[in-house]
């Protein structure tokens, strides 16, 4: 029985952490988190996603193909166009995609491939990525709720009132559950960090964002949209504290102007130091933090959690197995004494 329990525990860990350990940087290791990964074809045989919910005007296209002719019809290639379309290129749409389970890793990296495109010369409104305490609620902030608690990353494609800033513009906002997003001024007073990203929509280059977080140390955003495999630094902010339990989500919105807002894939990895030490940027060694309105973000939490959470996960796992083993041994002794007492 004990062996069966151990096998179930190990199998469960393997299901949640597929693909094995990968090298990240500076001795840091990465493990994919299946619960926060979504890739084509997105849906299972029951036409459901095991780990994500979606709603609003969201459309999941998992079986669309186009024929690309190279020189002659005989040289044609069959190419799959698979995507999760949060909004179509039509006015007054909102759509969302949210994880079903919270992201509890203390240090992580999220890689998102997305596409923003549409006809005409004017476009809007934009795409958002969320790490918030609440989930799956439509609202006025790029298709999701206002007064959120957690982190929002906004790819704003339409300029309302922000002189001197080139759009599209990418920015981060840390919500406290009370502060509203300043939509009229494109979030100027809410900005934690940001950068202009002219050319990020309707580009021939695969567009991606990479968000890396080391708990209470740094939050860094990089973008790929100019050249393949070339990452442009957007911002890095020190001392950021994201709530320890948040849901990963995406949303988009169109108004009078519109765009297709597509999520192609999402890959999330837990980052940890196999030696058990702290991970992430060290104090005084962060270099250029980029464009940031806030030098730091601290919500009264000052202690640092060492080991990246991964060591703590295994400690809890070992304690759980020991508890189960102890209970089994105790039950066996009790059962034996009960049998002996009969004679």
Structural write-up:
The two termini are about 25 Å apart. About 35% of the residues are buried. The strands form two sheets. Strands 1, 2, 4, 5, 7, 13, 14, 15 and 17 form a nine-stranded antiparallel β-sheet that branches. The protein has a seven-stranded antiparallel β-sheet with strand order 3-6-16-8-10-11-12, with no helix packed on it. The N terminus is likely disordered. Helix content is about 15%, strand content about 35%. It has about 350 residues and is mainly beta. Helix 1 runs antiparallel to helix 2.
Which descriptors apply to this entry?
mainly beta; 7-stranded antiparallel β-sheet; disordered N terminus; globular; 343 residues; 9-stranded antiparallel β-sheet
Give a topology summary:
Blueprint: H1 2-16, E1 22-25, E2 28-32, E3 52-56, E4 59-68, E5 77-87, E6 94-99, E7 107-117, E8 126-132, E9 138-141, E10 149-156, E11 169-176, E12 191-196, E13 207-214, E14 218-224, E15 232-238, E16 247-253, E17 260-272, H2 310-340
Antiparallel strand pairs: 1-2, 2-17, 3-6, 4-5, 5-17, 6-16, 7-13, 7-17, 8-10, 8-16, 10-11, 11-12, 13-14, 14-15
Shape: globular
In percent, how helical is the residue content? 10-25%
Structural class: mainly beta
Mean pLDDT: 81
Order of helices and strands: HEEEEEEEEEEEEEEEEEH
pLDDT below 50 for ≥5 consecutive residues: which ranges? Answer: 1-17, 282-290, 294-310
Taking the sheet with the most strands, its summary is: 9 strands, antiparallel
Q: Let me know the number of strands.
A: 17
Count of helices?
Answer: 2
Radius of gyration: 23 Å
